[in-house]
Automatic annotation (TrEMBL):
GO molecular-function terms, A-Z: acyl-[acyl-carrier-protein]-UDP-N-acetylglucosamine O-acyltransferase activity
EC supergroup of this enzyme: transferase
InterPro entries membership: Hexapep, Lipid_A_LpxA, Trimer_LpxA-like_sf
Pfam families, alphabetized: Hexapep
Listed name of the protein: Putative acyl-[acyl-carrier-protein]--UDP-N-acetylglucosamine O-acyltransferase, mitochondrial isoform B
Length: 280
């Protein structure tokens, strides 16, 4: 983003319409456009007349905001971002450069905390990213966080939730391919270059290292840890959830382990006083 007089003029011009009227907007023949010159280059941005952009929102260079989109007062949109029709940015949310929100995508929430999305990310149709978690211990007054890296492809109907408490955060790394209808719950830590096939479900506090591949309809129980280069076959259920002295066990899949649908042949060993379970 460029801090210049031209840039400030653009932001003021975006904020000149304090009252939104759908009927009047629909009769406008041209979208709201603004341009400015920085470092000798001309940058054009375009906001459709039916979009609702708060005057305090920070809009970068070359941003395109389509019909019926909304951008909150504390949102920041990086250079070259594209909001397709009916996509929304709520709450304290920051989009890095060249992010694309497809139709119906929702990013951010009005609850305390923030959602930070890196550069070159694609958010698919009707995906919901950075909203309140589904955890009974969450308190509405607590700040909660989601951090997403760069170059991620998050496909349609995926949901990724913020953390469940202010001392933790949900983290997604770089260059992950998260296919349609996946769910990544609160406080998960996802590394880099992972591929989650359709309907992969990760419960709260799951940790996934790098280059992990889950096939379709994989379910991972909370607090499980998937080591780098793990492969989970279609329909796998990772959890081995049993209880010892009232404490829930933790399933650990070791590094470079190939995990297929052969759980009945797995050997489980209790390790130490923390009651972890390791799959061999």
């Amino acid at each position: 983003m460029v801090k210049s007089k031209a840039k400030m003029w653009c932001l003021r011009k975006v904020g000149t319409r304090s009252h939104f009227s759908l009927s009047s907007a629909l009769h406008q023949s041209q979208p709201r456009s603004f341009s400015y010159v920085a470092d000798g280059e001309r940058f054009d941005s375009c906001i459709h007349p039916t979009a609702v952009v708060h005057p305090n929102a920070v809009i970068g260079q070359g941003v395109s905001i389509g019909p019926f989109c909304s951008v909150s007062s504390s949102a920041k949109l990086g250079n070259g971002c594209q909001l397709h029709p009916g996509s929304h940015v709520f709450g304290s949310t920051e989009l890095g450069d060249n992010c694309m929100l497809m139709t119906g995508a929702v990013v951010g929430d009005d609850y305390p905390g923030c959602t930070v999305i890196g550069s070159n990310n694609t958010i698919g149709y009707h995906a919901v990213i950075g909203v309140k978690c589904q955890d009974m211990k969450y308190k509405p007054e607590d700040e909660c966080y989601l951090e997403v890296g760069h170059n991620n492809d998050i496909r349609e109907h995926t949901s990724i939730h913020r953390s469940s408490k202010s001392t933790d955060r949900t983290v997604i790394g770089n260059a992950n391919f998260i296919m349609g209808s996946c769910h990544i719950a609160h406080d998960c830590k996802i590394g880099n270059n992972n591929i989650f096939a359709n309907n992969t479900l990760l419960a709260g506090h799951v940790e996934v290292e790098d280059y992990v591949h889950t096939a379709g309809a994989t379910v991972v129980h909370q607090f499980c840890h998937l080591g780098s280069f793990s492969f989970l076959g279609g329909g796998s259920v990772v959890g081995l959830s049993f209880y010892l002295h009232g404490l829930e066990s933790i399933c650990l899949i070791t590094r470079e382990m190939i995990v297929m649908q052969l759980w009945k042949h797995a050997t489980v060993k209790i390790i130490g006083s923390q009651h972890s379970a390791e799959v061999f």
